[in-house]
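Minutes, project check-in
Item: structure for the 356-residue chain
Input as provided by the requester:
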Amino acid sequence: MNRWNPAISSPVLRSDLMGDSAGAVAVRRFGLLLLALLSFGMCVALETATAVEADADSGSDSDADSRWTPAFRVATGIHVQGLDGRIFGRDALPFLQGPSGVPDDPGTTQMEDFDFSTTSAPGDSATTIEFRFDLRLYAPENLLPLPDKFRPRLFVQMGAEIPLDDGFVAARYDANFDTNVRGELGAEVSDFCPNTPTTRACTYAARTNFDIIANWSFGVGADFTLPVFEDQFHLVPYLGYFGQAYESDSSFVVTLAQSISSSDVDQEISGASGTEILHGISAGLGFEVDLYKGDLIALRLFLESRATWILTDRETSYDGTNPTPITNFSSADFLIRPSGFIVTQSAGLEVRWNGN
């Protein structure tokens, strides 16, 4: 698991590994994969048009029209979901007890609209490559009393999505205070650093992480055959239920520099949530092309885009304690809030059982 650890890696390194650069790499790689699969599918579809037409005229259409047909689908895709989080020092110095800011008077909780950490950055988006596995059951082609030309084939589908990445940062705070605060803020180091033991400088680093355990779905759709290239191309709308299981953990560290000659002292507050479940609805649209139709199986290449709206409460709170508490740094509250809107794009292969 690629998780930030203040003892072995700096906040800057963590930001570089899990920030926008990682998401951009995932998007570029998946874009190249989509282009390659689409080009391959188009070439194969055009070359096999005659074979598909011959199979369609083989005399088994009447049986196929009245049969329920199972299919297995495997795909790789990209999952994009925004994140937000908060970290509050419950008994910390006033400027850490609420939203980021420096107080007008360090002895009160009054805040100014001022970011106390110039190296701080917002949370990442959960952008990751994922594997998807689906089972689809096609209804008989003649289920709907419509003309063949306009009649879609209905189906039900269930599936699961497993992300390849984890440890996304929903919130990060980084701040360093030393004797320069006298000239910059007209304050003392003790106004910003825990005062037991006495310190000459301190550095805060905090992260709230987000891990997707799995996504799953169940829904219905309709397969519309396009009247081009021997009916090999299909538009497939989909509507269904979406579920997501995730976990969160957080770490809030202050490093205390007591003197020039002494070693730095790390104090850490950590906490973790249990497994949280989100529920929502998904709507998607697929573009699919028949690659092969035989007596036993049929192969199909597909590209699909989905949008998901989370309908349940997305906010999770938990707390943590310092095992060696000191004044102004003994406990903290953590909050994580995944976005209520998710976008996925996937490409894959369907194997359908014909059983002729």
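Outcome recorded: The first helix runs from residue 11 to 18.
No further action items on this chain.
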